[in-house]
Amino acid sequence: VEAVHLIADGKAPRIPQPKEGATYEGIQKKENAEISWDQPAAALHNWIRGHDKVPGAWTTINDQVVTFYGSSLLDASVPAGQELTIKGASRPGLVTKNGLVVFGNDGKMVLVRNLQFEDGRMIPASKYFSADETTALELTEEEKKMAEDIR
């Protein structure tokens, strides 16, 4: 109550905030969000989750920067999947039907659901090896006529 009265009377002390440490800008820079693989799975998960969405925790896969989104700890047996070499990781990740499984230095697992590439494309991690496949859109005769009418 006393503080409210001081403010209302215009007599509250004003202490300027120091400039040092007054911003979170440095934390949210992309270059500060690289994943360090020499840590337990829980720390990897917290790092990925803590940088989800901005700026996004990233690593290098096949000489390309890949950003990880949507992690969760995986407490199960090692799932079947296709191995994916990740720069700096002690063992390869696994592309499974549920996403990308990565391993901490404690042998425990983290499941990553989405990946974003340098060009901005985002894919489900489970589709990593099929990301380059493209399918042509085939229209029925009725759809072709409708497209022509719209054009």
Automatic annotation (TrEMBL):
Residues 29-130 form the Formyl transferase C-terminal domain. GO terms for molecular function: catalytic activity. Gene3D superfamilies: Formyl transferase, C-terminal domain (3.10.25.10). It comes from the Eukaryota. InterPro entries: Formyl_trans_C (IPR005793), Formyl_trans_C_sf (IPR037022), Formyl_transferase-like_C_sf (IPR011034). SUPFAM superfamilies: FMT C-terminal domain-like. Pfam families: Formyl_trans_C. This is AL1L2 dehydrogenase. The lineage of its organism: Eukaryota, Metazoa, Chordata, Craniata, Vertebrata. The gene is Aldh1l2_0.
